[in-house]
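Pilot study result, target chain (823 residues):
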Amino acid sequence: MNYNLSRSASRHSKPLLHLLKTQTPKPKSPVFILTHHLCTNLSPNPNQPPQDDDTLITQVLQLLQPNEKDWNFDQLHTLLFSNSTSPSSHSVFHITRRLGAPSKAIKFFDYISENVGTTTPPGSNGLLSSAFQAVLELTLREPTSEKKLIKLYKMAKKRNVALDVNTAALLVRSLGTAGMEDEAVMVFNELDSGLKNTHIHNVVIRVLLNMGRVDDALKVLDEMLDPEAKFRVDDFTGDIVIGSLLRKEQKGRRVSVEEIVELVSKFGKHGVFPNSPILTKLVTVLCRNGKVSGAWDVLHDVMDMGGAVEAASCNALLTALGRGNDFKRMSELMVKMEEVGIKPNLITFGILINRLCKSGRLDAALEVFEKMSGGVKGVSAKPDVIIYNTLIDGLCKAGRPEEGLCLMGKMRSQDGCVPNTVTYNCLIDGFNKVGDIERGRELFDKMKEEGIPLNVVTLNTLLDGLCRHGRLNTALEFFKEMQRDGLKGNAVTYTILITSFCNVNNISKAMELFDQMLSAECPTDAKVYHCLISGLSLAGRMEDASFVVSKLKEAGFSMDNVSYNVMINGFSSKNKPDKIHEMIEEMEASGVKPDSVTYNTLLAYLSKAGDFKSAHKVLDRMRDEGIVPTVVTFGTLIHAHCLDGDIDKAMRIFRDMGSKSKIPPNTVIYNDLINSLCKKNDVEQALYLMDDMKDKGVRPNTQTFNALFKGLRENNLLEKAFQFMDRMVEQACNPDYITMEILTEWLSCVGEIRRLRKFVQGYPVSKTEAAGFKATEGKPAGFKATEGKAAGFKVTEGKAAGFKATEGKPAGFKATEGNANII
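Predicted structure:
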């Protein structure tokens, strides 16, 4: 419609209509065309069918295209409210919204409000609600709309606009989004009770939760959970409440998972259950907080109450149960899933197989795999490459790489899965671990033939296998080959190589690799530095070790206890007290607390230097720091006092171990004390310590007996010697050349060569059948006699193996004036 023509027709409508009554124009004349046009557009015949909404909307919008100051309200009235009819709410809503500008929409709303009730039939008040909703939507498009929302609401109240549910929900939601939750609650509270349905309740609950007003939201929820409530909770309510409370960024009071579980139970009584993502998240949060039993209960409650539970929620619980190796409940959950019709998916089987493999239950994992492939009561999930790799890795770690290799063949032939880099890495590592390095290399070559990408893990796996089996040069050549092919090493690569060369004391090659790592600007970690520092320190190359320490700090890493301890030990062996002091100060300044190894190292250094006063001060400080002295601590001090000849001080420390520290002494401590006592000719005290060892269950070794035999020889306590020779036989403690030197010299002088021969053959010497032995065909129990020969000794023509009998003297000794001397 032409706008100017419409405005003219409106101005002269009455004369033209009067003319039509007095004069009938000829058909097709200009007057007929004009009057027909005006009549059909402005004064529709009430007997004709009502105008189509889309046509009316188009006509009104064309009329309202100009600025609102130029609107022709007469024509507008004729279009909308002629013959006591009124437009539909649908028409009013779309006309208002399609006006575009909020100012036009408000003007149109004002026009509607002035005509509703005066020119419209009863029940037309919904037009205002529709117009107001459109005004609201247009206003919300503006950047500063939040300042106008309350004004609009007050305008609506002033005009007695009866908000419908959609308009009220939009207003409440918009106010909440604008951070005006008080105003949103006010609008909600002022709504007619009949409008406060479930939807509007859900909107206000979401607004309150988003603004952190948790307790207010829960109060609104309580109204809906009331058994007498007119409008109750629905699925959206549950998703809004449980989903919001589970969010990490939830504002306001943090609601405990126990409270959330209780809410799930309350919802369940109304037949409302969390959807799968929310239930899965709740189970995950409970498990992450160590409440696996709570997760178990809530999941089973939902299933028992008839809630729809999917595999994802069960998978979350299975994962947590697997971490705790709770295979009993994992099995029970699988049975429950079957009972309620929850089909396990690929992830379900993956979780089961992964946990079984990690716990070493490979056969059970393979059983699950076979059931999965064959279908579990109608449920079939085709295994993918991840599940195959999990099983292959488990088999290889368990030392069963051949089975892993067979599984890779099945992977190709039956399920059409293509092995990937991980598959081959697992197999190569598996064969390396069982010592079949060549098989690992064959797999590597096959991997290259098939075009499967190599990665640094492949490189490191092969290098580790070669180095573990002592093939360091081959490992180095292989590394160089890979570098030429463009595969660069990482921190793990260099750590493997540097550690291996340090272990064989090839420090020069280790340093060469370290320099190569630095020049290649390879990303490193602290481990490679710590490893090299340890190797250099143990080798006594303290200047090189200090250089590596400086590089470690340049790389942004820090020294740890182990590195400080090996450096202190290295400087101790080089007798560098200034450097030791420097290390201790740096250690404390960097916040690394000395541990028992640090203190024991210092005690050993001070004791060796004869500075016992300082050593005991270190021991006192060690205790003050709350570090419990170990057997090494006391052994260090006892050894030092024994070397210093102060056996009394050593014995006091020994007694303090039992009375104050309650730390049992070991064989090394007894050996030091017995040796020192025998040197002091205090054999009686040494024999007491031998009995004390027996009482405390500390097993003597060859050095213990050697020390005692020396003391017994000096005091010619022959019968005691025979008793302890029997004790050596009883405990299968083999004599060494020192034992034989002591006993041969002594017993040959006193004419007891026969007993010596019996001792060498493994027979008791103090009596025919020593206590604790069962004689079988004349052979003592505890020794395996073969043709009259004692185990570990070869007797030839009555001569002890390893000795050449010459005039009754054992081989290996030169008899000079009756005394055997080591040749």
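One observation from the pilot: The chain has a mean pLDDT of 81. A full batch analysis is planned for the follow-on phase.
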